[in-house]
Design goal:
The complex is a heterodimer.
Chain A lengths: L1 H24 L3 H26 L2 H29 L16
Helix pairs in contact in A: 1-2, 2-3
Chain B lengths: L1 H25 L3 H27 L6 H35 L12
Helix pairs in contact in B: 1-2, 2-3
The chains are: A mainly alpha, B mainly alpha.
Chain lengths: 101, 109
């Protein structure tokens, strides 16, 4: 059964490399952000699989929980940042108009 | 019996992960990529973590294995709630920033 988990981990690592292409060569900033979000979700699964391979799942599941929470918070923070900045062009002026409704 | 069920769940989850990655690579626009990853990734993570929680119960029903399985199911349910929320937030920020959706005639500059 460990060989099956190792094969699944290798497949997920290869898919992570495929997603990293979008993270490096993405046309806009938002493409890079969703690429990092997808990579973080895959990393959560890979950490649990590594825990099952080593036989220490009770330790690795806590790291996995922390990674899932950090991934969610990072995506929400960047979404909030671009919602207030009003532009995704890198050289634009910061915080042109701020909405207070 | 539990092992076969876990293998079925994990294989289905990895299939959905593959679909999401192909969609992230090949779709033409930010919104289309969001459409692919927001659904395929969520379902893949939920199925894979459910399979891992089922396989962890294979060592016997003691307090430790049941607690670890509950933790893994907590990650699964949290991902099932948080991933569509993040998708919605980042799509709304893209719409507020003025990203033009892709059309077939090449209207996007």
């Amino acid at each position: 059964m460990e060989k099956f988990f190792l094969a699944i981990s290798l497949i997920l690592g290869f898919l992570t490399l495929l997603c990293l292409y979008r993270g490096v060569f993405g046309p806009t900033v938002l493409d890079r952000i969703i690429s990092i979000s997808v990579i973080g979700t895959k990393t959560t699964i890979i950490l649990a699989l590594v825990g099952l391979i080593y036989g220490r799942i009770d330790m690795f599941v806590d790291i996995s929980i922390a990674y899932a929470l950090l991934n969610f918070i990072a995506t929400l923070a960047s979404a909030k940042f671009f919602l207030t900045r009003k532009s995704i062009v890198p050289g634009a002026k910061f915080f042109k108009e701020r909405r207070f409704k | 019996m539990l092992t076969i069920l876990a293998i079925i769940f994990i294989a289905t989850g990895v299939f959905f992960f593959t679909i999401a990655s192909i969609g992230l690579l090949r779709f033409p626009d930010f919104y289309c990529r969001m459409h692919a990853t927001g659904k395929g990734d969520t379902l893949g993570a939920f199925l894979s973590l459910t399979g891992l929680a089922i396989y962890n119960l294979n060592n016997g029903f003691s307090l430790t294995t049941i607690l670890v399985s509950i933790k893994i199911m907590f990650i699964a349910i949290f991902t099932f709630i948080a991933n569509p929320t993040a998708t919605h937030a980042i799509t709304k920020s893209g719409l507020e920033c003025g990203v033009v959706p892709w059309t077939r005639k090449g209207a996007q500059k």
